[in-house]
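Trying the structure run again after the queue cleared.
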Amino acid sequence: MAKKQYAFYPGCSSQKGASASNFVTSIGLVCDKLEIQLNEIPDWNCCGASIGYGEGGELPRLALSARNLALAEQNFPGQDMVSGCPACWLASRETAERLNQHSELMAETNHALKEAGLKLKGTVKPRHIVEVLVEDVGFSKMKQEVIKPLRDLKIAGYVGCQTNRPFGIAGESFENPKYLDKMIETVGAEAVTDFDQKVTCCGGALAFSEPDKAQKQIRDIVESAYDHGAEMIVTPCQLCQANVEIYQSEINQKQGTKFAMPVLYYSQLMTVAYGGNVKQAGLDGHLIQPKKLQEIAG
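Done. Tokens:
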């Protein structure tokens, strides 16, 4: 069977060697098993993410993502542009919707892109890779490929805010989305379905500018996971993964807690369940080692 083809926009944090490189590592085996081919967009650039909203103005911010969309159209016509990072997905999707709805803004953006020899037609659809897994592949197919069920693992599915608002996954509740719990269950693990921090913000970039506020958010997330008996937290968001894992040690030092909760990507669970080893799942790239999952991976 021919693989489903998608233009792939990795984003800065997800590229090889960056802070979320274990996501890119683990999604490779998952896509292979599910007959998905991600075609990396050549010469892609940063989407701007949150920094794009600071002082630069609307046109430069939109032009950053528009360039990636135009490159996807040019190199992989007819393919949806898939992002692994929620911030990249939001920036790309907002850009596509704004420009397709406002012809004058599209013209101004294309005037800017002309300097790079590009023109955006507005035909490419930006999507998050979770959308592809849930909507194009489906839970049944995801479960069908499991050869090593992750039994006896209890996991808190932390969706976070950017994968859920303002767009989210089709048909899901903004207050209590179920898709991540279902993905956890498809690989044989137990999802903490009453995890009350599922869609709260991890503090995002406030981790740098106002660390006390961000760490309050992170503490609430980790404590809730412990309170509900979870052995690890799983998320679809690169920033959530980094913040919730990295700052546990600082919270321990400041507040006398003893947090050591592993924080992983859903793709790492799937890779192990599909028969991948520690290296293929990127499990060797964590500050807080997911020892139980490493043991299952062998």
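The two ends are 30 Å apart (CA to CA). Worth checking whether this holds up in the mutant runs.
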